[in-house]
Amino acid sequence: MQASDRFNINSQLEHLQAKYVGTGHADLNRFEWAVNIQRDSYASYVGHYPLLAYFGIAENESIGRERYNFMQKMLLPCGLPPEREDD
Amino acid sequence: MASVDPEIAKTQEERRKMEQQLASLNSLTFDTDLYGGTDKDAYVSSIPVTDDDENLDAMDNEVARKLASYTAPKSLMKEMPRGGDDDGDLGFKKSQKIIDREDPYRLRRLNRVISPDRNDPFASGEKTPDPSVRTYADVMREQALKREEEETLRLIKKKKEEEEAAKAGAEKVETGGAAAPQKRRNRWDQSQDDGTAKKAKTSDWDLPDSSSGRWDATPTPGRLGDATPGVGRRNRWDETPTPGRLVDSDATPAGAVTPGATPAGMTWDATPKLSGIATPTPKKQRSRWDETPATMGSATPMAGATPAAAYTPGVTPVGAVELATPTPGAINMRGSITPEQYNLLRWEKDIEERNRPLSDEELDAMFPQEGYKILDPPASYVPIRTPARKLLATPTPMGTPLYAIPEENRGQQFDVPREAPGGLPFMKPEDYQYFGALLNEDDEEELSPDEQKERKIMKLLLKVKNGTPPQRKTALRQLTDKAREFGAGPLFNRILPLLMQPTLEDQERHLLVKVIDRVLYKLDELVRPYVHKILVVIEPLLIDEDYYARVEGREIISNLSKAAGLATMIAAMRPDIDNIDEYVRNTTARAFSVVASALGIPALLPFLKAVCQSKKSWQARHTGIKIVQQIAILIGCAVLPHLRSLVEIIEHGLNDENQKVRTITALSLAALAEAAAPYGIESFDSVLKPLWKGIRSHRGKVLAAFLKAIGFIIPLMDALYASYYTKEVMVILIREFQSPDEEMKKIVLKVVKQCVSTEGVEADYIRNDILPEFFKNFWVRRMALDRRNYRQLVETTVEMANKVGVADIVGRIVEDLKDESEPYRRMVMETIEKVVANLGASDIDARLEELLIDGILYAFQEQTSDDANVMLNGFGAVVNSLGLRVKPYLPQICGTIKWRLNNKSAKVRQQAADLISRIAVVMKQCQEEQLMGHLGVVLYEYLGEEYPEVLGSILGALKAIVNVIGMTKMTPPIKDLLPRLTPILKNRHEKVQENCIDLVGRIADRGAEFVPAREWMRICFELLEMLKAHKKGIRRATVNTFGYIAKAIGPQDVLATLLNNLKVQERQNRVCTTVAIAIVAETCSPFTVLPALMNEYRVPELNVQNGVLKSLSFLFEYIGEMGKDYIYAVTPLLEDALMDRDLVHRQTAASAVKHMALGVAGLGCEDALVHLLNYVWPNIFETSPHVINAVMEAIEGMRVALGAAIVLNYCLQGLFHPARKVREVYWKIYNSLYIGAQDALVAAYPVLDDEQNNIYSRPELVMFL
């Protein structure tokens, strides 16, 4: 944090951001960001009932099944993380 | 004043209705249907008339809150040029030293010794501890020894006294009683904090060793005897304390019981320094101390740590003994001697050098070779053999033969303190003894690793203690990081003595305590051997008068107990529990309570139980019970789960044979009950009987403590029991009503209050059984003289009134309003005020009413003291609660007021005027409008008043009258009144300004049409000056008044005045002007103001342009949705401002954009907003905090107005930018976007392609039905 940030609202903002899992930082890589995006998306699908209903009709599944699937997919939405190049 | 508000609200309501009817006709109002008038209601539409909101925080006021969100540098807003009131102490800064504000009791902390390290049984495991380390057994043994010694001394003293008494008794019998041992003042536990314990004990033993006079005494060799401050004491701790001499020393008349100081002195007297010379004391401790590696310079700097010991004459002063010829360098190394001391030492040595016995060689050289004969010494001559005596006889045992040129040493300091090498901070003289070694420019390479480490620690500590904030910070960090490397021993041996330094200041102590805290955290279990040392230093913080010091102390002890563990803490503190010094026991009890709160009460319960049942000493029981009390005080309602066990642990103390134990038990029960309230009565079942029995058998302090406990337990009971027990205790209470003891009085009052307020106690019972005695004993003049009694009595009486009603109480005291003692009258008045304000006056019958008004008038007229508010408030409260019933008395009251308005004394005039403002509302209720009009005229005539305080009150009274009777009925008519107010606006007195602007604002708001426009313009110019006022309330009222005036006479002229004012230099003035412009624009619709305002932006002057931008910002904040009509008009201006070179332009414009965006969200102005966003966006890389804040907020505003998706698209370009600095900024924006609109982003995220093993795409989003 810069010296100028210490006394203004930004310092609180960073604290706030630290509380949100989905927030990012300058060193975030493609995979991590994509995981966040996927999880947010699934959370959003599950949270909006009309969307669930829509997906249910499109996939010919029950809404409960859809919800369950989405929740399961949240575990590893993008598969295993790739090997880090610099390690 | 409370009842003014509904009145005003009603008037406002009527007015609003009328306005709405007129809306279509009035060019200045806007069509509410079209623009939605709802949001305008949120603004303050009139100037507050009540006085009590003037000092409220910015956040409490609607407008101010909105302003606060923008005007970032609050420090500047608040930074007003202050008057000369605090110049008085310039150059005479009060001493900051902690020691200067400590009372004798607290000073006893300096008597404590930083004990040597103790054995850590956890670390050493099974093996037997090395004999050189102190184990728990050692400490306990030592403690026992001290107790024994104490006991012996007491017995000896008693015997002597008995003998004396017997002697005296032969002549006169009564003297025996007088010779009784001085009774120690019983310490009421809490009262130590509030200073009742400050009374110094006169006994010599209790005098702290550290009385500053003695500290300063320079111990010089050869003057030992003279330097001895108290010969009597010295004798005792001399080299050979034969029993006979012990008795001698007790002949000192003041040899009292508490030798708080003694043991400390004794222990250290036995330091091995003297061991070679002095006959060793046949004490057990000695052998142990021999082992202590007490090389002064390094391990424990005793001279500093325990100055009491080092400078007590019992020990031969350091400088002379160890060093034969203290070369300056060596002295520096020792570090314990200040330059003055050193000079004195050198001078002494010089004298002694000349006076020393001549040697044979010298005699040979002096005398001629012939004519003299050298004789043999007589056979009987024996040279002195006793080394100690020799030492005293010739203080320089290894004295140099002749003058020797001292070795040149650059490290020596002369008069001027040398600058510390290597960028170390300045050292104060008193720091030399701790940090002196740092001044030697020895080669660091030559030092042993240990010494280097010491050096390093010292340097860091010095930086923490005296350095600049950055120095401090880095040093603190280094100390923390390297704590384990340095080791616990070296660290604490350096830090703790510093904390015992007598010249320590608050700030320094805070910093050092912080160091300990950090280091503790790192060292963890390594601190175990040092726990007691640390406690000795930290415990005094727990009873410090400074709240923050107490909190700090608690935190350290809590961390310490977490690091060291319960077993170690108990082992370290157990010996102190029955220490003979009450101070030690008190602080230990407090420390234990902190340990309990840190490690949980259950962990400590078994130990506490054992301590409270200690058979060995009452002190242990006392301390144990006190720990329970402190726990209750410290953790409050969290005791509830353990309440029963805590009560069980201490309950037997109520029947203890020692009176002090009984007292503290009762006090602990009180604390527990207070902490547990309103729950937990079942836990106290077992103590009810002993308590209630106890109050019948005890007297004095114990009884007071028992009553206190009962007072706190009764409110926990069910109604039925409470009533029963109250009746039981009331007999005693009523008996004690007559007690002359102040402490008892306070407790009795408090208990009565607690009993009376309990549910089950019937009004009839109070009325018949308590009230007569209560009033007889307590409602006497003497009670009004002591502040605390006064308050307690008022509170208790008010509580009774809540039960028995107004009439009973007021009826009893109303006659006393005419008492001849003024303080007593004031107490009566305050009680009546509170009772009547609480319960109203419906209980008061006609007769009482008459008496009351009569008494109040008398008391009001007879008051002479300066503290007039009580009478005024009382008068106001009574008149307001009587309401209509006061009508018959109003002429009389007004007559009094009028007469007093004409009084010679300014104070009286002021009170009279103040009284008008308090009763104005009631006068209106009584329809005494004519009377009010008359008063208005009278007040008007007194507007020439020269005392500003009085003038302020007169204006306030006028304001109150205008408020209630309205503009049209006001006499004198507004058109006469206002011109008279214009010159008063020039008055710089705060009270006058405030009342005047309120009155003017009121008139501008409600009755502007009565005054010609030219008069309003004149007022406008005066108002500009008002913007300079220090008080925020005045500035706020002024700014609002601009709005009313503009509404009344049209915005053009007012605006021109305000725009001109933007050119002034003063920032505060400009800020207020911009607010005024925005308010004018809001009240008169923006289109009347915007053209002129935007035109003003063309003036090539920073201040003006910024002022315009700021006005725009406020304007858009105030007008909200209405902004959609003006956004296109101002966009070019904002474009220009957002591209300006000046940072402030861009900052202010950005905040204008923010308000604009928030106002027009969802109203279809996206095109303009996107356009503006394009200008705002390049500013995201600004580093100035205000600018970047404004820019970020503008972007947030855009998120709301444009939707998160658009802003996300702006963001995407930089999230994975190759430059880290860029990425950081973009992620920051992304994060706030994410927090603000997480869900909305889902639809807008970019499409990512899958990679070999990873699926990044979101196929669900492409599903289509």
Automatic annotation (TrEMBL), chain A:
GO terms for cellular component: precatalytic spliceosome; U2 snRNP. GO terms for biological process: mRNA splicing, via spliceosome. It holds the Pfam family SF3b10. InterPro entries: SF3b5/RDS3-10, Splicing_factor_3B_subunit_5. Belongs to the SF3B5 family. This is Splicing factor subunit.
From TrEMBL, chain B:
GO terms for molecular function: mRNA binding. Gene3D superfamilies: Leucine-rich Repeat Variant (1.25.10.10). The keyword Ribonucleoprotein does not apply. GO terms for cellular component: spliceosomal complex. GO terms for biological process: spliceosomal complex assembly. SUPFAM superfamilies: ARM repeat. Residues 75-97, 111-135, 156-299 are annotated as: Disordered. PANTHER family: SPLICING FACTOR 3B, SUBUNIT 1-RELATED (PTHR12097). Residues 842-1077 form the TOG domain. It is found in: Nucleus. The keyword Repeat applies. It comes from the Eukaryota. SMART domains: TOG. This is Coatomer beta subunit. Belongs to the phosphatase 2A regulatory subunit A family. Residues 76-85, 156-174, 187-204 have a biased composition (Basic and acidic residues). Residues 251-265 have a biased composition (Low complexity). Pfam families: PPP2R1A-like_HEAT, SF3b1. It comes from Parasponia andersonii. Its main location: nucleus. Keywords: mRNA processing, mRNA splicing, Nucleus, Repeat, Spliceosome. HEAT repeats lie at residues 646-684.
